[in-house]
Design goal:
alpha/beta, 10 strands, globular, binds NADP nicotinamide-adenine-dinucleotide phosphate
Length: 285
């Protein structure tokens, strides 16, 4: 049974979902979403940046899983920040996904006219086109700017989070403000070094599980939501199969001790520019 966490607006969020970053082949994307939903996934994570919202919407419809049972997340990119542009961006996502209201819309990065974009998202919630709103890649200082100006507190902050980068400063701040942490790169982007860590390998051997399953279980036991990406049907199935065993306190502590002092991902310069030209270069599929 997939466990879920309560968000500050009362919605519940499954602790494991499917991420579709870099899954730009529309048929592969659609099939992965359909497979995941038929396996029992109820959380799907996309973004305008991933250029696959239409395929995600098709996968959801093809699965036959009732739409109300699914928590669908997408994100808007900083080149669409500011009140008017953000409202147009939400309209674009609604049209491409073609799945009714968006369950969770995130600001993808903490650059540009964040406050204007946030006001737009608050308006979308008021109008019922979006059910919940949150942020991604917001550090403590970004949240300190947003929160005093927000009528609605973000329900989640989706950030890089895995045993090699555990967000030691951010997580206590999120807990204090009732913001749910959500892990991108939950497997360290499949890092071989992470998967080979002795603390993870020994827990995997002890429980008869794979290192990937041990890492996902570690997220679950820490109360994190994780969105591993896979297009491999066997991996998609295995990644949800982490709810019938538990890591011991000693195993958890062994993985906690793997934390390093910097993230794995270094954002390239274009990504942190307030208006990334990439988003305008080609029309979205
Ligand atoms: N908000 C942001 O800025 C941001 C940034 C990055 C990512 N994200 C989100 O987070 C999601 C996950 O991040 P990610 O895709 O970069 O990294 P990830 O989920 O940590 O790792 C994905 C890699 O692990 C492999 N993998 C998955 N399950 C496996 C299994 N059971 N056994 C062996 N290998 C396995 C995948 O390969 P296979 O496909 O072959 O299984 C893929 O190479 C993204 O898809 C996206 O939705 C958000």
């Amino acid at each position: 049974m997939v466990t879920s966490v309560a968000l500050s607006n009362g919605m519940r969020m499954p602790q494991i979902g499917l991420g579709v970053y870099l899954v730009t082949d529309v048929e592969v994307c659609e099939a992965s979403v359909e497979t995941a939903l038929n396996d029992g996934y109820r959380l799907i994570d996309t973004a305008v940046l991933y250029r696959n919202e239409r395929a995600v919407g098709r996968g959801i419809r093809a699965s036959g899983v009732p739409r109300d049972d699914i928590l669908l997340t997408t994100k808007i990119w900083p080149s669409d920040y500011g009140y008017d542009k953000a409202r147009a961006a939400v309209a674009g996502s609604l049209e491409r996904l073609d799945c009714g209201p968006i369950d969770l819309m995130l600001l993808h990065q903490s650059v540009g006219d964040i406050l204007g974009a946030w006001k737009a998202l608050e308006k979308e919630v008021e109008e019922g086109t979006v059910r919940a709103i949150g942020v991604s890649n917001f550090r403590v200082q970004d949240l300190e700017r947003l929160l005093p100006n927000a009528r609605i507190t973000p329900v989640v902050d989706q950030v890089e989070l895995h045993p090699h980068w555990q967000q030691p400063e951010l997580l206590p701040y999120l807990a204090a403000h009732g913001i749910q942490p959500e892990a991108w790169y939950p497997l360290g982007h499949g890092s071989a070094k992470l998967l080979a860590e002795p603390a993870i390998a020994s827990a995997a051997a002890a429980h008869g599980r794979s290192p990937v399953q041990v890492i996902l279980r570690w997220h679950v036991q820490r109360g994190i939501v994780a969105i591993p990406k896979s297009t491999n049907p066997g991996h998609i199935t295995a990644n949800l199969d982490v709810f019938d065993f538990a890591l011991t306190d000693a195993e958890m502590a062994g993985i906690d001790a793997l934390g390093r002092d910097r993230p794995m991902f270094r954002a390239p310069r274009w990504m942190l520019a307030a208006s990334a030209p990439l988003m305008r270069a080609r029309p979205l599929p």
